[in-house]
């Protein structure tokens, strides 16, 4: 265990003539079954697509249809792709490059950011929570809290500027999407923004590195899990591996070039009183190419107590299905334990 704290999957994968993965990385099928979804070969299905430009500058009829699209995607899938979002393609390339350069730092340089607590503003490591896990995941990560207070590693050079510009752009897209989702729930567009204090929203960027794995059928990049927060916005380096759980089976996500991949999180399920479920997803690995993804989780403000929106409870005829919990407390609870499906939601279900 101690050796893992100062090492990484990248270091392991870079070893010459690596033909087998260590036993600690062998992810048994029963583990995925224990977490809910059936295992097996993932299928390919069309994923909902949302045209962001029509939400922000379309005609009233076009905007109304996009709001309906958002409602459908959140209720039926918990996942959608956002096209024409207006975030500069060059900026997404620079953030991918910067995160790649971070992972290329020496182990000694990265050790400065190992972190000791799950709510440390900058934290890098391997697996998910190596201090409590018995089986490790084929993944290295960098997590940075970027809002309401901005933090950044001081290496690589100029990374901080790109990180701040990129996450600010993502935050703007998220707030407009949440306005449309608020309307799809029958609320005013500003309602969620107001009650969740999105001006002070907690935003965390997580860069994930999945090096080539000599036995990808035995390893898992990330097991089935749901995300804390409202919406997670993800980009990747052109290498697939994300799968979502939809109607009892796994579905491969084939991204439209330049699109954001968006999934609903636990707090979207809580505030909508279960109407918009938090989607389970996982990351698989391959034996040929390094996959890198960058996800940005977007939640309410850390101090906000999230519970079902009162206006959705229909004057008491529809009882609340979740108790309220302060967002930062939920985040600490989830991040401190093993990654286990969306079991953290069970702590707040009534």
Provide an overview of this structure.
This protein has 350 residues and is an alpha+beta fold. It has one domain (47-347): Jelly Rolls. It contains eleven helices and 15 strands. It has helices at residues 2-5, 9-13, 29-34, 52-57, 60-77, 89-103, 107-111, 159-184, 191-195, 266-271, 327-335, and strands spanning 43-44, 49-51, 79-83, 122-126, 140-147, 203-210, 222-225, 231-236, 242-246, 249-252, 260-264, 281-283, 291-298, 305-306, 325-326. The strands form three sheets. The chain has an eight-stranded mixed β-sheet. It has a five-stranded mixed β-sheet with strand order 1-10-9-12-7, with no helix packed on it. Helix 5 crosses helix 8 and helix 6 crosses helix 8. It is globular, with a radius of gyration of 20 Å.
Which key terms come to mind for this protein?
single chain, 350 residues, alpha+beta, Jelly Rolls, five-stranded mixed sheet, 11 helices, globular
Please provide a brief summary of the model.
The chain has 350 residues and is of the alpha+beta class. Helix content is 30%, strand content 20%. It starts with a helix and ends in a 15-residue tail after the last helix.
What pattern of helices and strands is seen along the backbone?
HHHEEHHEHHEEHHEEEEEEHEEEEH
Fraction in helix: 25-40%
What is the architecture at the second tier of CATH? Sandwich
Rounded Rg: 20 Å
Number of helices: 11
Average pLDDT taken over every residue: 90
C-alpha termini separation:
37 Å
Oligomer: single chain
CATH superfamily: B-lactam Antibiotic, Isopenicillin N Synthase, Chain
Strand content: 15-25%
Pfam families: 2OG-FeII_Oxy, DIOX_N
Protein name: Protein DMR6-LIKE OXYGENASE 2-like
Keywords: Iron, Metal-binding, Oxidoreductase
Domain Fe2OG dioxygenase: 200-300
């Amino acid at each position: 265990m101690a050796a893992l704290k100062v090492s990484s999957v990248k270091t392991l994968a870079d070893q010459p003539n690596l033909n087998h993965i260590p036993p600690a990385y062998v992810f048994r099928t029963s583990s995925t079954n224990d977490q809910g979804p059936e295992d097996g070969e993932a299928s390919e299905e069309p994923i909902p697509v949302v045209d962001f430009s029509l939400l922000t500058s379309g005609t009233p009829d076009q905007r109304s249809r996009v709001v309906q699209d958002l409602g459908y995607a959140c209720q039926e899938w918990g996942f959608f792709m956002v096209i024409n979002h207006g975030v500069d393609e060059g900026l997404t390339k620079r953030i991918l490059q910067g995160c790649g350069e971070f992972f290329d730092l020496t182990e000694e340089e990265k050790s400065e950011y190992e972190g000791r607590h799950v709510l440390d503003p900058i934290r890098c490591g391997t697996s998910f929570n190596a201090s409590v896990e018995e089986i490790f995941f084929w993944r290295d990560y960098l997590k940075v809290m970027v809002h309401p207070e901005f933090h950044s590693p001081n290496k690589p050079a100029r990374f901080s500027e790109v990180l701040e510009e990129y996450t600010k752009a993502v935050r703007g897209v998220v707030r407009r999407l949440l306005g449309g989702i608020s309307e799809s729930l029958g609320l005013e567009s500003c309602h969620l923004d107001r009650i969740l204090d999105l001006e002070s929203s907690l935003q965390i960027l997580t860069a994930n590195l999945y090096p080539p794995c000599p036995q990808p059928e035995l390893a898992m990049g990330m097991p089935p899990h749901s995300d804390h927060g409202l919406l997670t916005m993800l980009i990747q380096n052109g290498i697939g591996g994300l799968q979502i759980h939809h109607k009892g089976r796994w579905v491969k996500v084939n991204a439209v070039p330049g699109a954001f991949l968006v999934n609903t999180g636990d707090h979207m399920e809580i505030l909508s009183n279960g109407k918009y479920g938090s989607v389970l997803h996982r990351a698989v690995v391959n034996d040929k190419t390094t996959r890198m993804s960058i996800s940005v989780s977007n939640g309410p403000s850390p101090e906000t107590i999230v519970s079902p929106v009162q206006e959705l409870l229909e004057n008491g005829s529809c009882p609340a299905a979740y108790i309220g919990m302060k967002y930062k407390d939920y985040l600490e609870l989830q991040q401190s334990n093993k990654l286990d499906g969306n079991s953290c939601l069970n702590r707040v279900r009534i």
